[in-house]
Structure formats: structure tokens, C-alpha cells
Design a protein that fits this description.
Number of helices: 12
CATH architecture of the largest domain: Orthogonal Bundle
Largest sheet: none
Structural class: mainly alpha
Number of domains: 2
CATH superfamily of the largest domain: Cytochrome c-like domain
Order of helices and strands: HHHHHHHHHHHH
Shape: globular
Strand content: under 5%
CATH topology of the largest domain: Cytochrome Bc1 Complex, Chain D, domain 2
Distance between the termini: 28 Å
Radius of gyration: 18 Å
CATH class of the largest domain: Mainly Alpha
Length: 231
């Protein structure tokens, strides 16, 4: 992550007057992680076998194994179970608006959500392809950000191969559909949040604020081609 010391962006207060880039980077990461640890709820332990039966209705959109065939619906195979469970809870509470799922999650108990999350987390994410014409710009944004506009590198939170960070609540991104990633990034840029207590969406609001449409398309395409596991 290459962030300038003379920074007027959203994270300025976290590293103003810190002498070196190393200190700035790690102070930022430490502060964000501590905020998320305070905000993340205690979730139930899930049973993947029980979750397979409960997840049958999910397969219509997300695929039986969590690898959706329609790019507007996200792949959830291999996603961190805590992240899936958290999102189900946010949708059920109304903090995250997903009209297609509102009726489905209303009947789920906390244990049901934990079981469904455990099942999809145990599946293997299918790999995708990056558009070669967008690869260079997408990789630059993902790995280095854009220091000229104070955009941090995506990999600083989501990992070098898109594996995410379950402890901090950062989702896995590797292999996700370009169309879905574009939709999410543009939504965050427009100010969409998942409740005033949800640190993750608030962080993304700030990170995406200066992204252009072309940058979003490029980095979303690059994400689709990331592989979080060695095949």
C-alpha cells in the first residue's frame, strides 16, 4: 500500500504525522482490525451436513455447491462461514437490503444460518478469467491501489490472492463474478451501508469513494481471475 503522508483522504486521522510508510500502513491496519473485532458478533457453530439440506433453496440462485452460474448472483462456495452467517443476519434484520432474499431468510433461525454458512464454506470456489485488456490496470489497483487518488490496495485487506481475512470479517474475493463485484463496488461508492454498526461497509464506502467506473471494471475483472487455492 503506497499512501502519501500528506493525505487529505478518509484515513488521514489514523496516520497523520507518522514518519514512515511502514508505520502508516500498519497503524491503519491495526486500527481497522481492532474496530472490526469489537463490532463482530459471536456466531453459532455450524454443521455442514445439516446445512446441505437447509441450503437447497439457495441453490436456485447461488448454485447447488455455491458456484452461481448467473453473474449477477454471487458465488458463495468457499466463502468464510462467519462472513456468510453475518450477511444472512444483516439481510434478515433489514440492515442489508437484498429483496430477493428477504422472504427466504425470515424463516431461518441462527442455527439454520450457521449450518447453511458451514455448508457453503466447505465447498470449492470455481475459478474465473480476467479480461486481458483490463489485467494491467486491475492488477495495479488490487496490489498497489492508486496513490494519486488515495485509493489503498485491495490486497491489504483481502489478501494477495483474494483469500480474505475471516478474523477481521474481510470476505474472500477470488473468482467472484466481475458483474457482481462491479455492482457491489458501485453500491459502496454511492453510499450503501449495512447499518451504522457495520464497520466493513463503512470502510468500503471510504475506499471506493474515488474509484472511477473504469477502475471498478478493471479491478472487478482482475478479482474474477484470482485463484485463492492451488489447483
Amino acid at each position: 500500500m503506497h499512501l502519501k503522508q500528506d493525505n487529505n483522504g478518509p484515513f488521514r486521522s489514523l496516520y497523520a504525522n507518522i514518519p514512515g510508510e511502514y508505520e502508516m500502513k500498519h497503524l491503519l491496519q491495526f486500527a481497522v482490525v481492532m474496530t472490526l473485532l469489537v463490532c463482530l458478533p459471536v456466531l453459532a457453530a455450524g454443521d455442514a451436513d445439516a446445512g446441505q439440506a437447509k441450503a437447497a433453496v439457495c441453490g436456485a440462485c447461488h448454485g447447488v455447491d455455491g458456484n452461481s452460474m448467473v453473474p449477477m448472483w454471487p458465488k458463495i462456495a468457499g466463502q468464510h462461514s462467519a462472513y456468510i452467517e453475518r450477511q444472512l443476519g444483516l439481510i434478515k434484520s433489514g440492515n442489508r437490503a437484498v429483496p430477493e432474499m428477504a422472504g427466504i431468510v425470515m424463516g431461518l433461525t441462527e442455527q439454520d444460518m450457521a449450518d447453511v454458512a458451514a455448508y457453503f464454506s466447505s465447498q470449492v470456489t470455481s475459478t474465473g478469467l480476467t479480461d486481458d485488456a483490463l489485467r494491467s490496470n486491475g492488477e495495479r489497483l488490487y496490489r498497489a491501489g492508486n496513490p494519486e487518488t488515495n485509493i489503498p490496495a485491495c490486497m491489504s485487506c483481502h489478501g494477495p490472492v483474494g483469500e480474505g481475512n475471516p478474523l477481521s470479517g474481510y470476505p474472500s474475493l477470488a473468482g467472484q463474478h466481475t458483474v457482481y463485484s462491479e455492482k457491489m463496488l458501485k453500491g459502496f461508492r454511492s453510499g450503501q451501508q449495512w447499518g451504522e454498526d457495520d464497520a466493513n461497509s463503512q470502510i468500503m464506502n471510504q475506499v471506493t469513494l474515488r474509484l472511477t467506473d473504469d477502475e471498478i471494471t478493471a479491478v472487478a475483472s482482475y478479482i474474477q481471475g484470482l485463484h485463492s487455492t492451488v489447483e
